[in-house]
TrEMBL record:
Signal peptide: none annotated. Residues 24-278 form the EAL domain. The chain holds residues 577 to 854 of 854 of the full protein. It comes from Alkalimonas delamerensis. This is EAL domain-containing protein. It comes from the Bacteria.
Amino acid sequence: DAKNRGRNRLRFFNQQMQLDVTERAVLTNRLRTALGNQELYLEYQPQFNEQQGMIGAEVLLRWHHPEHGHYAPADFIPVAEATGLIVPIGNWVLMQSCFTLADWSNDARYQHWQLAVNISARQLLDSHFVSGLADMLAQTEAPPQRLLLEITESQLLDDTELAHKQLYQLARMGIQIAMDDFGTGYSSLQSLKNLPLRQLKIDRSFVRDLLDDSSDEAIVRTILALGKSLELEVVAEGVETAAQFKALHQLGCRQFQGFYLGRPASLEQLYTLVNERS
Ligand code: C2E
Ligand code: MG
Ligand code: MG
Ligand code: MG
């Protein structure tokens, strides 16, 4: 009867949840030793200008566990944030990024490239974040002007005042700030006015159906217009086809990133790609 079915469904649901909780506990334990065991590494997704020349890359964190294989960032980054592990892991990402930027600054082929690094709220709300990053830049002699920190709107809601203060300190050091996944958060226009931003990244959900959905086209147009009047760079994310690239270009977009132009790759693969093109 209905009552029994309900109970069975409930038990089934609980078993599923139990499994998820266990899986999450296993992942959490594994994540605690991932950095020390050298299971984390970085990939770099190239970014391009309108002539499809490379202008830099976004750093993407990767985790390969010896038993499980790859964990997706969407699965482990939230755990890293909830446990606070994102602070040491994020510091490692930043240090590697500073080394890479320092290398680029000594090579005429890559001197003009920027490196974009994703930052979690948890990192920005750590009071040592700014001084720690200043030390890394000094130690590696990386040029702060080529470092772009990507933040999301929803992250800033937790502690607006501290986050804003730190972002202004970073901007004064010459570091660039980008608003990632723009259009998917809550308080868009207010933060555009109040933050020291250099760049907006159009979320790839708007690019995906750009050619078939007039609402998405209107949103993309609006973000580009906003960028123009506020003098912010606009980068389109998730460009997967030539048609999307062309449409974005016609709408006035000048910076691009996505599988059509280049997938996340190792630094070596990135250098090969650019040296083959030119
Ligand atoms: P995000 O910053 O928006 O990064 C872009 C994501 O879109 C990446 O997924 C990238 O592989 C994917 N992508 C790029 N181009 C295309 C495309 O043309 N089509 C499709 N379908 N996907 C594309 P990934 O690497 O899985 O990263 C997911 C999210 O994890 C990132 O979103 C970012 O929020 C977070 N993340 C990655 N690395 C780090 C990190 O070092 N620190 C922090 N705090 N978060 C990170
Ligand atoms: Mg990003
Ligand atoms: Mg994004
Ligand atoms: Mg994202």
